[in-house]
Amino acid sequence: MPPRLLTLFGALIIAVALWGLLRGKVIAGARGLRSNYYYKDDNPFSFYGFILIYLSLGSFLLYQSLR
User: How far apart are CA 25 and CA 39, in angstroms?
Assistant: First the structure.
């Protein structure tokens, strides 16, 4: 995959994680045509788990694009 595309995907995934931290909800898939969210107050373990997954995946993609 081209490095520029990896950089774009990595930055986008990190932005989703940071936006989720600011809003207090993070997207966690879809059910049909409706998005499924985890909220910080309702399910903090899953919320922070998805934030951690998004940050690690975005960081890995950025690392691969610089290599």
Answer: 4
